[in-house]
Structure formats: structure tokens, C-alpha cells
Write a structure and sequence with these properties.
Layout: E1 19-21, E2 26-28, H1 44-47, H2 51-65, H3 78-83, H4 90-114, H5 125-130
Antiparallel strand pairs: 1-2
Helix pairs in contact: 2-4
The structure holds zinc ion (ZN).
Residues 21, 23-24, 43, 45-46 line the site of zinc ion.
Length: 134
Amino acid sequence: MAAKARKTPKPATPRTAGRFCWSCQRQRSSQSFSAPGAGRYLCRECQALGKDELDFRSARANLERMMTDDGLVRRKQRRHFRKFLDDPRPRVKELAEHLWRLDRQVRTEKLESEAQPEAPANDGTAMEFMAEEG
Ligand SMILES: [Zn+2]
């Protein structure tokens, strides 16, 4: 019998192939997903995680979306973010508190690095920036 026609190797998969799993935050092959879903995709691996873990990851993704790459909570999101500090789910609350502290820390460091020793033009605007308590 004639040898099977050798398939030419497929070109490298384009980056847009597959879907982005919101839970593990990875771009994964379409085969990693069970069915075409609507909107948010969850890969098979993550589907097996169970409700609590997914619930936590969902909240985590929400929190991380509210932060800049610098580790700051976006100004317009601060009110919303604060609600998570009283979240009934202990892990979510803990994570929110952690990110909130990070935000504080980054703000403090920013202020310190921006403070010009020879130009103490501090008319209180810096403090306003810090003291944004609700
Ligand atoms: Zn996943």
C-alpha cells in the first residue's frame, strides 16, 4: 500500500488560538475547554476546582482588575474595593486586606521618593493623597 501522505507540519499556533481561562489566567488551547461558553471561559482543569475555589478566584480576578500594575488600587475603584475588606469570605477578605496594605505601602514609597529635600513645597496636597479615608 502506498505510504500515507505525510502531513505537512502545522504552522506555529497563532497567539490568538484558544481561549483565555479567567481562573488560571492562561491562554489555553480550545481543546482545554469543554464547550463554547458565553463570555467568561473556564478550562477543564479549573472546572474541576470546585465552587469555593472558583468563587475565590473570581473575587481575586475582580480585585486584581481594580489595581494598577504598580500595585495601587485605582482611584475610581477605591470605594468598590473597600467593600471587599469586609467580605464574608475569609480568604477574599484576607486578600483584599493584603492588596490594600500593598496599596498603602506603594503610596508611601511614592511619596517618599517624590519628596524633594531642597524643595519642601508641601502644602498638604501630599497628605490629601494619603488620607483618603471614607
Ligand atoms: Zn483554567
